[in-house]
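Q: Got a minute? One more chain.
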Amino acid sequence: MKRHLVIVAALLALSAATYPQKARVVDGDTLDLNGTRYRLHGIDAPESGQQCAKADGSAYPCGLAASRFLAHLIANQRVSCKAMGKSYGRVVAKCRAGGIDLSGEMVRAGYAIAYTRYSDDYTALEGHARKARAGIWAGTFEAPEAYRRAH
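A: Always. Here it is, folded:
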């Protein structure tokens, strides 16, 4: 009997390590992981309804683009989050998928800015994205925090 319990426990541990946890993108800097909302630490992404301008001046839904990029990052990956604190009913966390720091990758690709009010962790990556004119840095945009205040 004991042997069967050990085998069942080993199979459960293996399945938990093998299958990705169910993560859902709420917006460009927020995930829902197994019913808990996680705000990605140290970044601020354009809001869901936010529009930005491309280099040619034409508008595009940059908030939607940020959400889609985050969804791409977590697709078919095991997502894990380490809580750092709480903000507005969400857990602020450093989250990883497939070994990638999600906050860092969002900033590096130009789909979020470093949220320096709370952390300087991603300022160097923001500088690289800005220089490379990646994502929102290819055109013009309103800082997400300013957009939230105005809308």
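A: Helices lie at 2-18, 62-74, 102-108, 123-132, 144-150.
Q: Perfect, thanks.
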